[in-house]
Amino acid sequence: MDENQKKAIIIGASSGIGRALAKKLSAEGYLVGLAGRSLEKLQALQAELPGESQVKQIDVRDTREAIHSLRNLIMSMHGVDILVVNAGVLFQNEDFVWHHEEEMIKVNALGFAAMANVGVTYFLSKGSGCLVGISSVACHRGSGRSPSYNASKAFISNYMEGLRQKLSATAIKVVDIRPGFVDTAMTQGRKGLFGVISPEHAAVFIFNAIQKGRSIAYVPSWWGIVMWFLKRLPENIYHLGYRKYLAWDKKPSHP
Ligand SMILES: NC(=O)c1ccc[n+]([C@@H]2O[C@H](COP(=O)([O-])OP(=O)(O)OC[C@H]3O[C@@H](n4cnc5c(N)ncnc54)[C@H](OP(=O)(O)O)[C@@H]3O)[C@@H](O)[C@H]2O)c1
Asked: Which terminus of the chain is more solvent-facing, meaning fewer CB atoms within 10 Å of its CB: N or C?
């Protein structure tokens, strides 16, 4: 292994955006660490990558074990320059089932913070590095259909702002990625989507944001304008619009 090679780890690399980003980073010459729950999917991805990679099974719901595994992966890769925390789950939880709410908080918020902690601690020890968190445009407003999802994304974005403040006197970058709708397993079967892009397209946006050292990047960038307006709407108008959106989303496409 070339110890001077650029290195990146993706937590949640087995499908969707994480998978596409792994391919992009590998094509750009990075040694890539692939982490997630499904070893089988990670190994299938590994076989497709043009460059060298390592696979590690990590379930971020078990933070103690996940922290230990991520540290081991960093060690076995002889370091890391970019850590992408992409793992996330979304349940359309209309019946407000607790275990779905709990899972979203565990994976998206608690799991994120645990992985970010390992990354930042490591980057502080070497004096540089880049933490990338995959948040969402959903970070700006609440959602009656999946309250924990939007709240967990607000947590991630707020947490990264805190980390940027903490690390402002260092060379360590913290990049908050806020995608709109991306065509992955997470959005499959949903009707009320617009401006949907492919995971490969999203991966190019994310890679460019990392290269430019952006603090916050909307994917694609026009979502930044949409959210600038949406986050300023008074709550009653936001709720009214959201109810209309839900009615549209639930309308059968073939009457
Ligand atoms: N698709 C969109 O429209 C959209 C929009 C905004 C933001 N995002 C965010 O983008 C990220 C990727 O989502 P995606 O759309 O690519 O969906 P996806 O295809 O379902 O990917 C989710 C990834 O998270 C991993 N994951 C889930 N639970 C995990 C756990 N407990 N431990 C470790 N890894 C876990 C999955 O791997 P395993 O199943 O192998 O564990 C998978 O690799 C998520 O954070 C999501 O919130 C997506």
From this structure: C
